[in-house]
Design the sequence.
């Protein structure tokens, strides 16, 4: 008899439906995927691995023998906040297709800023015919904050498009043709040089509020920001103040403190902000299901777990 892998999700109905078809298909030769609510007491207690997407933590706790949970999302700040430290290990989704998709979004919105599209859109509304100086990509320094799976792919894509790319991460990195920095001193150096900042790091205790008013003061006057990571990494009031006084010229925001962005948020009507509804790199059901299936197959065949989240670091 095939082992049962519970699927625990409070994601919206459409998402749950899509996964409820894709996961059993991808795992059909390895395991039976069953929604948590349909499991018997015995099945709950036998489960050693579960697939989770915004799970109710009480449901995860109701499976006492879980060794690990496979998240369907790349960002796991909610799981690290809600699951106990001594609970099951957390494996986040790492999908090369997601890195590719994110790098495409980073390139697209970097070009949007590089070619002054927000400025030309405002001018069109005002019927203004006025060209602005065209800079070459090589004369624009774009800093990627967070050089992980998504950041490195994005840095390389920007580089191959001719931009001057620099990067910042928690630990030291060495990348071909991309100057990298780490630590607090490194952050200040990066902020001073960058014409555009792209945020691609996880939300942790260390990164929450990382771009506050002090950090923004170090930015080059008129710099732009693209936040594709998590909303609380930037302090929103500090961002709005910096945009209003021109310290920053434009922000492309895909992620927010609260999502969906509430209608009363001042960000909606700020002409120096472009709002995206968390679409820069969504999980792709088809490729993600295969990755999840490979991880679970490997675990059942060898007992080896995929790399899991370091609970001390928070990612
Ligand atoms: P990852 O592979 O874990 O990489 C994270 C990077 O951030 C690493 O380079 C890490 O440094 C760096 N970092 C972490 N804490 C730091 C700190 N305190 N100071 C400086 N650098 C720090 O993660 P990923 O797969 O690239 O994903 C990054 C984030 O993107 C996710 O956590 C998620 O929040 C977000 N995301 C957003 C979307 C979207 O649609 N908007 C989609 C997917 C993911 P080290 O290399 O030194 O460890």
Sequence:
């Amino acid at each position: 008899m095939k082992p049962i892998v519970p699927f625990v999700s409070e994601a919206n109905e459409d998402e749950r439906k899509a996964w409820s078809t894709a996961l059993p298909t991808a795992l059909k030769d390895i395991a039976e995927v069953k929604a948590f609510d349909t499991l018997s007491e015995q099945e709950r207690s036998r489960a050693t691995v579960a697939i989770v997407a915004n799970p109710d933590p009480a449901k995860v706790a109701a499976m006492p023998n879980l060794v690990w949970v496979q998240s369907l999302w790349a960002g796991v700040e909610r799981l690290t906040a809600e699951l106990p430290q001594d609970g099951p290990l957390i494996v986040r989704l790492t999908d090369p297709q997601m890195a590719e998709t994110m790098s495409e979004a980073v390139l697209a919105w970097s070009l949007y800023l590089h070619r002054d599209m927000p400025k030309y859109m405002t001018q069109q509304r005002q019927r203004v015919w006025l060209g602005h100086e065209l800079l070459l990509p090589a004369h624009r320094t774009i800093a990627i904050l967070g050089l992980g799976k998504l950041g490195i792919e994005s840095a390389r894509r920007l580089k191959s498009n001719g931009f001057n790319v620099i990067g910042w991460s928690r630990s030291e990195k060495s990348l071909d043709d991309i100057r990298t920095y780490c630590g607090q001193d490194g952050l200040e150096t990066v902020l001073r040089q960058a014409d555009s900042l792209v945020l691609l790091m996880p939300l942790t205790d260390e990164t929450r509020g990382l771009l506050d008013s002090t950090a923004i003061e170090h930015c080059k006057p008129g710099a732009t920001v693209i936040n594709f990571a998590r909303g609380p990494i930037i302090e929103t009031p500090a961002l709005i103040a910096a945009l209003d006084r021109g310290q920053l010229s434009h922000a492309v925001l895909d992620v927010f403190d609260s999502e969906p962005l509430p209608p009363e948020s001042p960000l909606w009507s700020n002409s120096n902000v472009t709002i995206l509804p968390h679409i820069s790199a969504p999980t792709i059901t088809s490729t993600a299901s295969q990755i999840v299936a490979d991880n679970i197959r490997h675990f059942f065949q060898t007992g080896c777990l995929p790399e899991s989240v370091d609970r001390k670091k928070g990612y």
Q: What stands out?
A: Residues 102 and 281 are 5 Å apart (CA to CA).
